[in-house]
Amino acid sequence: MMRFFSHNGLLRIAVFALAICFTSIASAQEVPLKVAVVDMEQILQTAAAPKSIREQVKKIRTTYRTDVQKEETALRKANQELAQKQTLLSPEAFNEERRKFEQKVHAVQKKVQEKNLSLQKAQNQALNKVKTALSKVVITLAKNNGYSLVLRRSQTLVVADKFDITQTVITELNKALPTITLAAK
After folding, report:
1. Which among 6, 33, 130, 158 is least surrounded, fewest beta carbons within 10 Å?
2. What is the pLDDT of residues 104-159, one digit of tens each?
């Protein structure tokens, strides 16, 4: 009798497990698999907003570079003047002038660092806005076109061109976010 009970219990468990499997298979069959692939690197290289960011960063860096060159020229001139004063000043006075000069150098270095950090922060913030808009575009396209799976091109080895929606994403992203302004200080 004990043997019958355990055999019957195993049979019930097997039937229950099969029912769960068939239910899962039936549920999986309800959602058709429609795949799309997006090349995120291409989008970030060719879409209008990321291009706008790169152009603004380049322009700001050029301005920074010009400012830094002016500062460096002024520091070189001050250093030459200081070297000329060395023979005229007492050691204490020269050390004081040298200390002031080094403070100026440090201040310029700090200013350059702060500007670079500010620019990097502004660039990252702008890119995050692009990525947010990009995600919204991809989600909207997935919903509107019934894609049940959207993959990054970098996550795939071989993809047929018909699955690639990169150009559509670029077009929609350019409509949603044609430009973006850096908030660099």
Report:
1. 158
2. 999 999 999 999 999 999 999 999 999 999 999 999 999 999 999 999 999 988 88
CB count within 10 Å of CB 127 equals 16
Q: What is the rounded CA–CA span in Å between residue 58 and residue 119?
A: 10
Q: 């409509």: which residue's tokens?
A: 175
What are the residues whose beta carbons fall under 8 Å from the beta carbon of 156, sequence distance 6 or more? 37
DSSP-derived 3-state class of residue 105: helix
- Considering the segment(s) 31-176 as one domain, its CATH architecture is 2-Layer Sandwich (3.30)
Residues 6+ apart with CB under 8 A from 148: 31, 32, 33, 34, 35, 142
Any idea where the domains of the chain sit in the sequence?
1-30, 31-176
